[in-house]
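Morning. Coffee machine broken again, so started the prediction first thing and wrote up yesterday's gels while waiting. Chain of 184 residues, entered below exactly as on the submission form.
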Amino acid sequence: MSTTVLPSYDHQTMLYLSPSERLIRKVRGYTGKVRRLSRSMSTRAAHPEDIWATEYLTPEEARVYRAMDARDRDHACRVTRHLLRDHPSAEPELIAAALLHDCGKSLRPYYVVERVLVGLIPNRLARLLPPVGAIGIRANHPELGAQLLARAGARPRVARLVARHHHSVGDPEAALLHHYDDLE
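Came back before lunch.
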């Protein structure tokens, strides 16, 4: 169980924001998505901090991490760095989940055009489409990642946070992870 007290951040927070605050938060989220999309065009632009990252992971989790695409590892390291900047005493499982939150995408390689097109589809819409191919992986990557982690022998709490990072209502740590994922 978590001993670190993190500021409350969940989807209920959005209910208490003014329309301009909500708009600013959404614009920041979409700006992050555009930056990530531009970086996803080539693996040459990805420079994940693998040695640093694996220091936070168990050997089983590190195997899953290393199987991820370099672009996803690079994104995961940026998400984790931002999380640690604002929450330096974050629980080890939350840090590991930040590094592994997109591991479900590693179940199938993406072609560049798929990365671009799938990146343009909001997750809520992707979940309504038939769960096949790149769209299916995109829509279900949190749950697929949690299953992958469980089979690999990862810490159960890490798998739970990965599973909930896009559906975080009622889970402040998963909501925090979702927040930093959106920013990056």
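Residues 63-184 form one domain. Going to sketch it on the whiteboard this afternoon.
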